[in-house]
Design brief:
CATH class of one domain: Alpha Beta
Number of strands: 8
Helix content: 55-70%
Strand order of the largest sheet: 3-2-1-5-4-6
Structural class: alpha/beta
Keywords: Coiled coil, Methyltransferase, Mitochondrion, S-adenosyl-L-methionine, Transferase, Transit peptide, tRNA processing
Radius of gyration: 36 Å
Organism: Nothoprocta ornata
Order of helices and strands: HHHHHHEHEHEHEEHEHEHHEH
GO molecular function: tRNA (adenine(9)-N1)-methyltransferase activity; tRNA (guanosine(9)-N1)-methyltransferase activity; tRNA binding
Enzyme class: transferase
CATH architecture of one domain: 3-Layer(aba) Sandwich
Subcellular location: Mitochondrion
């Protein structure tokens, strides 16, 4: 019996020690190792009764329960080691003169390791390198601007005559800001509502969402400076969404002070359906006049990401009236889609609201998209079309001449 106890003690020592060394688990296995050695039934020379038995099955369960924890710890250690190896490789590439960022985070390193090929890894590192250069350039510009501001402030302090002019301009700008704010505050009570539908985040990429928010910021600024501004509503707006984060980047602390209405509810819950008109380029109904009693809705999407019929399908699903701008009625459309940016739509609607003149309103459409207005005489229209055709024909002839010269030179070389 003493020989069996000695054999079991040596087995417990060896298995626990090797398992702990292999997986790095010391916390759970060494107390078990100590209890097995110091247990009365395993001590040398200790009296042993027939009732005392070693439960090997329980001991195996305990040993197996420690193995997954050891494997998890080993995988974490392996992941950390791979991240460190990737960081060392990036540092070596940077010292070798490659386009690699100086500072790279652990998340970016994990994204780099997930790249399937070497070419994709190079592209990702170049992207991070260019992004870092842009940040450094912006920081340098901000520092230069701050230095120029300090220099001009010192010059103004040295000249007391200009101080009065600067104080007057500051008072004038403050008065103008108060006037704008007063008009927008009045529009929130008495003004015509204009709704931005903020439910298209899933249909756009993060870059397109950022462009959309930028256009909405421009729209809010032009509406604020208008004589008779709209009461802007952001409907279907979710907190902590990508829209929300981009707005906070632009407005920062002024986001909570904006004179607009932000709500999570749908516009059909805020306004009656018979007064809502959804403006979409896919609508078969052409907008003839601007109605001051209607509530116009604009989909918050950028030009590049608009999928055909998305906003129209949403309006039909809700049972709303739709309309599109009469671009073909007033403009000789040349090239490009008939989708306009959000700030262009805001300028057009503000001009229609103030004047009701479509020609003045449609002047905000980019000039590259149309040749002229339909209201001109037939001879002027023919001249314009002939000029466009002549330019196209001239370009084709230039291309043909270049191709002929290239082919002729190839024939001479072959001879």
């Amino acid at each position: 019996m003493q020989a069996v106890n000695t054999l079991l003690k040596n087995f417990a020592k060896c298995s626990a020690f090797h398992l702990a060394v292999r997986h790095g688990v010391k916390k759970d296995l060494f107390p078990l190792h100590r209890t097995l050695i110091l247990s009365p039934c395993l001590k040398e020379g200790a009296p042993h009764s027939a009732s005392e038995k070693l439960d090997l099955d329980e001991w195996k369960k305990v040993m197996k329960s420690g193995v997954p924890e050891a494997s998890e710890a080993g995988s974490e250690h392996k992941e950390l080691s791979t991240v460190a190896a990737a960081r060392e490789a990036v540092e070596m590439w940077r010292l070798a003169g490659r386009a690699v960022p100086e500072n790279i985070s652990d998340d970016q390193l994990k994204t780099l390791m997930e790249c399937p090929s070497k070419a994709s890894k190079k592209k990702y590192l170049k992207f991070l390198y260019i992004k870092e250069l842009y940040k450094k350039n912006d920081k340098r510009k901000m520092e230069e601007k701050r230095e120029r501001r300090l220099e001009t402030q010192e010059e103004r302090d040295s000249k007391p005559g200009e101080l009065k002019k600067n104080s007057f301009t500051c008072l004038w700008t403050n008065a103008i800001d108060r006037t704008y704010n007063w008009r927008v505050a009045q529009s929130m009570i008495f003004g015509q509502p204009l709704v931005f539908d903020m439910s298209f985040e899933s249909d756009m990429s993060p870059r397109e969402v950022a462009n959309t928010v930028r256009q909405i910021v421009f729209s809010e600024s032009s509406n604020r400076k208008s004589v008779d501004p709209f009461h802007i509503h952001f409907c279907n707006f979710q907190d902590n969404s990508q829209y929300h984060r981009e707005f906070i980047k632009h407005y920062r602390q002024a986001w909570d002070k904006l004179l607009i209405t932000v709500t999570e509810r749908c516009y059909t819950e805020v306004f009656p359906k018979n007064k809502i008109i959804y403006l979409t380029a896919d609508s078969p109904n052409v907008m003839k006049t601007f109605d001051h009693d209607k509530v116009y809705i604009i989909g918050s999407m950028v030009d590049k990401s608009i999928k055909t019929g998305v906003s129209l399908a949403r309006a039909k699903r809700l049972g709303l009236e739709t309309a599109c701008l009469p671009l073909e009625k007033y403009l000789l459309w040349n090239t490009g889609a008939k989708n306009l940016t959000l700030d262009q739509m805001m300028h057009i609607l503000l001009t229609l609201k103030d004047t009701g003149d479509w020609k003045k309103a449609l002047e905000f459409v980019p000039k590259r998209k149309y040749c002229g207005f339909v209201g001109k005489s037939v001879s002027d229209l023919k001249k314009g079309l002939n000029l466009v055709n002549a330019l196209k024909l001239g370009k084709k002839r230039e291309v043909q001449k270049r191709q002929f010269a290239k082919n002729y030179s190839k024939k001479l070389i072959q001879k």
